[in-house]
Amino acid sequence: MKHIRKTDRAPAPIAVEGASGVSKAGLIAEADGAPTAAMRLFELAPGGNTPFHAHDWEHVIYALDGRGTVVTGDVRTEFGPGDAILVEPSEEHNFVNEGEEPLRFLCVVPLRGDA
Question: Which of 28, 60, 70, 73 has a 20 to 30 Å separation from 90 between CA atoms?
Fold first, then answer.
């Protein structure tokens, strides 16, 4: 068993093309002994967004705070605290914070997607 507190893993800004106002804290990773999946905590500042991208693994999302929009292709879906989202493998997507407070969500991916 591994117990990690949020305060043990400081968020770091995401510095990739197309990302704005995004930070990520790796909560559970392969280095912690996770055999198949990683859990990350994302925070998007008001007006922030992740890059529009796709990959061959799924994202399992659980919203904690704030309001956001996930964009898949030409579909925009609003979400907020308590909502769960499945972004399927190879589905183009990005997350946008169009609200006035930080958007925070957990994201679980297979270990190969934990970059």
Answer: 28
